[in-house]
Amino acid sequence: METYQKLEQDWASFNQLDPAGMVACSSGTAALHLALEAFQLPQGSEVIVPDFTMIAVPRAVIMAGLAPVFVDCCDDLNMDFPLLYKKWDHINTALVRGIKAVITAHMYGRKMEMDTVTRFCSSAMQGADGLRVIEDLAEAHGVSPNPLTDAACWSFYKNKIVAGEEGGAVWFRDSNRAALARQLRSLGFTDAHDFTHVPRGHNYRLSNAHAWLVLKSLRAAKHNIACRHAVEYMLNEWCPKEWRMPVRNAPWVYDFRIQNMTSADQTKVVEALKATGIAARHAFKPMSHQLEFLKSKRIDTGKHFAGVAAREVVYIPLDRAYDTDPFDTVREALS
Q: Which residues pair with residue 244 across a beta bridge?
């Protein structure tokens, strides 16, 4: 057995999934792209995507020849699916046509409520198959996909809970889709290896060397998650109550929000924390504000909370111990 195949088996077991549906690949972006292409959606179809997320999500949609439609986030930073649900009749008749899939993402380790998503998508008026649901769990290792999710995607980039230098995986509820994805990840080669490349594929194979690194990390995952939760608990004790964000289900990073903070002050906070050796980061900027997506469709209430969160939220790592209260540095930067 190849090392990457061992990873497919062990990662499926870790997530309590059927290993027949697991496909290892070269990155989280590749996982998202393979998921979309394996569903063979009509070119130009529209895909519901969070506005507050990492750019790999809508980029994969474009790579698959599809069009992203951005949905605003709630105050927990996850996609505001109730907003989509409430506006669906209007959306499906006036704003957009041809929606074929929904990509959800569990932001900063905070689990999105998936039961409503999967129930709605299975009953939406999009033909017998309903809307495809793709669950992005790159930031939520340890959270199992919803049983009715059509595909689940992970990244094993070096900043993730389970990590190599690079890598990814995608799981399909339908093992036939997984079989197609295995062809797609290897330039369309079949087991016959007769140099017939149908369907057209991509060079998305995961090397055994990278798979070995991920397997090594996976063996320490439970201990790693427990240590991260301990750091999270300590930061909760230090973080001012008004800055705390909702509970995280997976301890990937520690995000906090300072209401009415300006972009300039956010940068001061990030730079001040970095000066003390803490790898702080700005929050994601809305995808609908990115130059390549300025003409894409967006669904929100008019408040556009993704834009608010982009300047009011900062996150710091959970893979290290803190000797002193990092929020003292934040206060000093804002004083």
A: 256
